[in-house]
Records
---
Amino acid sequence: MAPGKGSVGSWAGIEEGESRIMRRRNGNGTQQLQDVTEKFRRGEIKLIRIMEEEGLITERERTGLAERVDRAVTQKRSSEVLATAHTIHNRLIRTLQTAKTVGQKTGPPTELDVLSEMSRLIQADIGRDRLFEQILDLIASGIPFENGTIFTLNRTTGQLAPAGVRGAQVDLIGGVHFDMGFGFSSWVAKQKKPILLNDLHSSQRDGRPDIGSFLSVPMVVQGELIGVLNLSHPANAAFNEDHLRLLTLVASQAAAILQRVLMYEEVARLAVTDDLTGLHNRRHFHDRLADEIRRCQRYGCCFSVLYLDIDNFKVINDTWGHALGDRILADLGKVMVRWGRSSDLVARIGGEEFAALLPMTDAAQAIRAADRLRAMVADHSFPRRKRLTVSLGIASFPGDGQTAEDLLKKADAALYVAKKLGRNRTVASGVAA
């Protein structure tokens, strides 16, 4: 790395220089983001088609909305994708609210009421916990229950976990394990079929609720299991077929909402994540650095920026191939996650270059942290029993610069010095090597 390489005079220069790095980096591609976006496209097109079939929009309106979805996906910008989803859902809400106000009434919610309320929840700017609370509120307005639990499927582990609870957490045969976890809800998830049990005599002696009636309905959308909804009541015959039908409708709509929430979260996560290592990406690192500068200018605090480069990594790629190089880069990302504090931000800048933002850390503290990371890397056995060393450059705010451009330039220059001095060492800007 030459002194001028990566040392630029403007944010535009930083973006241009690092985009060149990203083009030649190991682990090219954003397949995860493409998959999530395509899944979104299919879901929105299906919703538009249903709206037309139900007479909620005209054929011309359907064509316009579908074209907007395709255009948003083609632009490959998460902001456009989300904005398009809001347009479609706002249209659905207005249509359903108009239908609902034609004849105001009291009493248990109808299917139209459920659809209208669920469409409103799609647009509500609330967290996931609040979303589950409002879904249980809607169920309580039409089904008498004492205890309700919403289980969601963890896509990583393939197991169900409670996500929303009203009263006490409820399930049956909790000691029995099925494919997706313990309890009857796991069996319902596996079968993807609802169950109504109205003549139970389950008297719990360990603090769990008595169960005389039990309803369990899977939350499924487009064939994909999202979770399970469980309700219970201590009395027998507390639920009927109408309750089962209403809960099934709520579950299907809740599944669609939660699937969108999960996709939005996944799109947002992938937009700031490096595909190969799972660390934050270059753009997110720049955004957080700008935020940290503003924070420290306001409150008079310090922080440090750390640049890391794998020594002689080109030899590994040239000798063993990029497949092994990718595995080593991913493994190094895990080492850096173990090394960093919860307040630190670790990112892959491109190729074999990584960076870390260390809040409330002065130059001396940053040197100690960097040396600890360097030792962890040297002691780690990478794939194919490869041993690596790394060189690190450090710049600290406010001593080494007041702007992101200055700090990154100083950290990069310090990294270059570490390389020139023989590699496998730490150099801090303004500190004698």
---
Amino acid sequence: MTNNICKSGFSDLKSNSSPEISVLVSTYNTPIYMLREAIASILSQSFNNFELLIVDDASTNGICEYLDTLTDSRIRIIKNTQRLGISKSKNLGINQASGKYLALMDSDDVAKPDRLKTQYRYMEKHKDVLLCGSWFQFFGNKIGNSRTKINNMESYRIRMFSTYPGPLQSTFFIRLVSLKRNNIQYDETLSYAEDYKLLLDISEHSKIAVIRRPLVMHRVHENQVTNTKIEAIVESEKKVKSYLLSTLIDNISEDDIELHSKCTCGYYRDVPITQETELFYQKLIDINRIKKVYHTRQFESMIYQIKKRLIWQTIKGDFSKSEKIMLFFKKLPFFMATKEILKMSKMKISHLLIPKTFNKSHHILYFL
């Protein structure tokens, strides 16, 4: 046996019906005070008809003993007796969830009091949406807001081709019946970037939406995975991007995957624009024009965004102003090149080389 399930007073819930929402929190060695705050933020929600599933992935820092002290009747605890990893642990929780909806929460984040009520009402009104997220606020070692927007699913799918498109995993609110009916779950071959692949799979079946108000406080701290496992995250994201490339390229090579990953991942800050990258992305444009996998104009606009980033990384060296201008006009459409040149005249180049967003859920990919 790899896990056991402790039902803490679950029978005290309505006996003739399942809870409307199953909240899933997966944890592994999360600092106990952070986990305590996360759990408290769920138990104090203004919406009460929920169960809280906590999956402990064989933690070694005292979490198991702490969980034994919880007595709230809405809590169910799953304890893995050996380490399974984040994707398998979350799938265990999903399989045990009995709610109409599934709400995801990271074990070090905090939900605002009306989070569940707001997302529940939204999903009840928008039956065509399978997953909705929300904006969020940073706290801890960073302050500010993140405001993911989804204008339409086609532009969302295209953005996904080059970067994690959001929303934050800790804001996921999913129509559970639809998730199971379409046989969608976390990819257990991925140690990280599991949310990226889940969004990809959901986007192939239904709509994803974002509520434009912050419903979660996202904690930024030095022990986050994005600070300790960056290279492993890059490798996991590369696997997701290899699948996306395969929608266009029939016999995808490792060189293609590596090139696209380096050109679109914010972890690599010094990848220049080269003839090789230009030929590769022109090949993608040409194939898409034939296969029409993605909206032609929007897809090509995304490719130009990638090229724009590579140009800025190229001109960090000893380029004269005229050389920079020539490079922009040579590689980009006229209006896009003009816009970048105007930026260059008003801002320091170093400011433009810093990604707008860099956080756990968005991984290290937000550079556009």
---
Amino acid sequence: MIHENSFGIDKKGHLTLHGVNLVELCEKYDTPLFVFDEVKLIENFNRISSAFSALYPKVMVCYSIKTNNNLAICQTLKENGAYAEVASELDIHVALRAGFGGENIIFDGPMKSKETLKTAISKQIRLINVESLTELNRVNAVAGELGVKQAIGFRINPFKEPGIFKYLSLNKLVTAAYCNLGSRFGFSIKEAYSAVQQATKLKNLKIEAIMAHPYRVSTKVLLPMMRELYRNFGVELKYLNIGGGFNPGGARFIGNNDLIKDFLRRKIGLKSKLAENRNITNIESVAKSIVNEIKQGLEDLPEPTIIVEPGRFITSASGILLTRIDHVKNAGGYKWVMVDAGTNLLPRFGAIEQRKISVANKASKQPEEEINVVGPLLYVEDFINLKTFLPKVSEGDILSISDCGAYTISRSTQFLHPRPGAVNLDSNGNVKLIRERETPEDVLYKDKTI
């Protein structure tokens, strides 16, 4: 099984990307190794940008820096017209180093210290989205100290306590058991009106935006509020920020319920559905639906600029991870393939990402056995894929794991192993090292002995 688009198979039966033999790449840079396809990165950015701008005259596509904060990745997107969405002082530093000017940066996130706000405002960041009254007053105070009038937005959180209905839904019950974790972000709808009223009295602020996340809930929450703020408070918003959360397809997200259902299906002789593709609404259809809803919901209001904040959609499919098989063993009724990359490089957000895997040095071979691909870390849940069909594999084989461009480098850890290097491939097959492989001394660099 091989990947699509720019991938191919050479005469050796090895997987290639833009003509570059990925097995030979591992010989030069060692494994694990992140490989980024610059063509795919730019293509994904242009696709989501065009999906909206073809239907609406004013659009800002703000790349979510936290998704992949590698400088070369961020610089490439900046050079192709992206704005930046940042959520910390580190993000701000990365965005500025990558060449984004303050006017091309918006600042999100639930915690913004006074020092971070000083940095942001002094760098003339275009917009700061506030999430609490404390933060609102803090931004006003810092802007006053610096003698500027700072543009702000309000993050709106549509969360509502479901009451007795949470006992009728497992998902809602789990959310309640975890103390409604998502409710801490932004302002409730009721709180938001009061916060806006307060902000109109603060002399160092300009109210320019409202936002919500993810995009699926944004327009239904934001458009009625936008109309009411205009008619009742005289606030004319410049920006309507619908957040991110756009699904790029590729990796399939599965949870405990999916694994349990699959286990039971197999027990009664039914075929596994774990590897089945799910229908994903394409971004053009998503954009059309959103823009139509905005145009209808604006009624007589002036057209705002639409802000979208994609991250995973842009970077996920642009990155692969190459990892080497250390050994293969049988245990517990399953075949286990131990590789030199694990959840230290592919961390999870709760759900399991079931990614497509190819055997790079056996790319022309057909799948013939079911295996579990697991990492080198000393805990049970360090696995990459479960119940994956691959050609017969053995020690030394190179696996190519797809959809590894998002929340991998930026969330990778040094737990038990230094972090790997990363290379960028352009359309001509030119290879450029964009992150050096760490050594044990790099891990200890900031430590001091007693």
---
Amino acid sequence: MKEIKKLIFLGTCFIFFSILNTININALSGVINTRASLTNVVVGNNVNVTVTVSSSAPIGAWEFVLNYDSSKLRLVSSTPATYIVGYGDGVKKTASYTYTFKTLTAGSTSVSVKNALVLDFNTEAKLALSTSPANINIVKPTITVKSSNAYLSELTVTAGTLDPIFNKKTTEYNVSIDELIDKLTIKATPEDSKASILGDGEVVLSEGKNTFEVKVTAEDGKTQIYTINIDVFDNNPINVTIGPKKYTVIKKGSVIDIPENYRETIIPIHALDVVAYTNEITKLCLVPLKDEQGKISLFIYNANKETYIPYHEFSTGILRLYIVENPKGITIPRNYRPTSITINDVKLKAWQSGEGNARDFYLIYGMNVNTGQYNFYRYDKVEETFQRFINKQQKSYQDIIQEYFIPVIIILFVLFSLIVIIIIQGIKIKKLRRSSIKAKKIPPMAQL
């Protein structure tokens, strides 16, 4: 019986010390883990690597040296150092350090630590360490070759026939159609499905030459433009000559953007009905004209004189201006010399001051389309804005007149009064002289 108790006691002690030894071993172990932010990195890109020292108990001190292949990785970050020495505070159980590397060449590599040592804070015993490297796969950049194909595989119109027959390398075509056709559809198909097309679809036609462009943009940005000239036959053209240029009156509507607050109407020109646009505020009648290149512009039509003047409207914010090209009967402010300025590809008559630094400012004459009032406007070429011009010289003259009006009237009244007094006194003196002369002519006996 005593032998059995002795065996049980010895067995219990063995198990107790085994457990205690296991706990002590676990307490005296640590881990240094090296982890990369990316496992696959393109050559030339950066990757972050974090080294973490940890233990289940507070760590007292640690050190390690960062190990990596300098032919594949270049350390970008200057901190922390590649050789680390750290100390604990009795609480800290982990410590982390992050490094940034730039990848240099393709291939597999790793970042790890060497000469690592970690001490327990309480016992200052050396911990048994387990380490794991960070494996990184560096790959070459994928070069994607984009297509430069900007050709069309098909180009058609729903009215008329292309001349010449379509060929992807032929970039200009002509089409002739009857005047009854006022619209058609341009259909275009790219040879490369990755190319984009701009300019196809339904288009509105007017009498004479109509030019449309179909722009093809390849995947790599290369462009190709196909031009279609559509000639709409006109049985009764109204031809107009303005200066050296020749125009044709457009009789149909919906071929140009109508200015705001203008309404479409029909007016007679040369006994033919023509679409025009009128505005009750501006009292202007606009008619679209087409030049020999097919460009359509609006002109102010005077039915009485049968004249056409270009209509140029510009907007800045809520201000809309009709700029008068050749204003007549206006007084140009002093110190302003005639010049010209181009706004939105339109060359306009202007004036510029010779005083101060005014080279970016121009004076133009126009009508506020919202009010119908004409005035000078100051144009800022840099900011591209208009502002109503106030003639400060004229204003100062008016202020001077108003300031000195009453004093001048008083002075004039005083002068007038003095003149009247002088005249009256002169008359009195003249009468006295006459009386004195008569008295001298009477003899003394006659007086008796």
